[in-house]
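Quick start: what a row looks like.
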Amino acid sequence: MKHPLISVLIPTKNRPEFIKKLLDCYRYFSKENNIEFIFHENLSDSSSLFNNLNKKVFRHIFISEDLSMSENFLGAISSAKGRYILMTGDDDFILPEIIKVAEFLEKSNTLAAVSPVVSYLWPGVSSRITGKNINGKSLYYPFNKKISYHKTSKGLEKILFYGGSFFSYEIPSLYQGIIKKDVILEIISEYGTCFPGFSPDLASAIAISSKVEKFVTWQKPFVVSGASIGSGSAEGYSHSHKGPLSDRKYIVDQIDFWPPRVPKFFSAQTIYSASTYISLNLFYPNKDYSINYEALYAGMLAFNLKDSLNLLKGYTNFSAWPKITFFLFLILLDRLNKLILNIIYNLILPKLKKGASINTPEKAFIEISKKYKML
């Protein structure tokens, strides 16, 4: 039997309602030969949803015992039949463009690709810019409309320059990015995992960067980053992604691995930086890479000023503050630029166009696909 070119992996746990919504989107792939969707479901069992679906395209794997996030991810990877793989959350979804990307990677002998940013806020997830969100909302950002190659080493240097505290797919990632399966299997065979630390997207990206020299940024989005109620992405949009580590059980259980120069505080910046530290030590043990912690501290101040001022007293001295101030200026300038683009693309332009209201992931899938001429 012919194997598919690409496997889309969806590890999920106790969220059967999201599986149903994704299947509504993915029915558009039901006759494709080059793709398979693997729903690796833990605890909850949605097998009945797959009864009348094409078994070659839609695969459901149910694991009844309670798995860790890493175990669920690794189980999904081991089930993949495709030569290329992409992993998403159960609130993300992929677009028809993904097949063209995988075919390009195969023909050009390229190992990895990432996508421009498009987001979907599930109903009930609000943002500071677009306000309340009752019906679901798609968010867009401008990007360069051409295929471009990038050196992975340059992307890793940028991540370290900013303290490991930000990640916008400067390097290829298994999570929401396409990677040749053999690369991931090699990493797992050598290290036992590709998801150390606290952030699977960044951890897998640093793992991949140790094996892949260059990657492609595609000219159209092939994945939509979702934010649903209760997810880390949703907390990021509402700026509630912060607090004591003691409120996050899965982090407290691994607190012995927390890096000494990263403040013990839960935020996007500290989680990314801690994962960067752990991943570098595992995947680059003999490389002299250093994390610019002053940039991390600047990022903490930019997003959580009140909490960070007290926290940083034990991690900084007077001589560090000129450098922290410099990075704070760069980060605030970048935030201002993104704020302006966000207002233009997701507040002003939608009002001028007066498009149809989005209220389901399936409608968002159709809207985004048509916008980029994929359907």
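That is the whole record. The chain has a mean pLDDT of 91. The chain has 13 helices and 14 strands.
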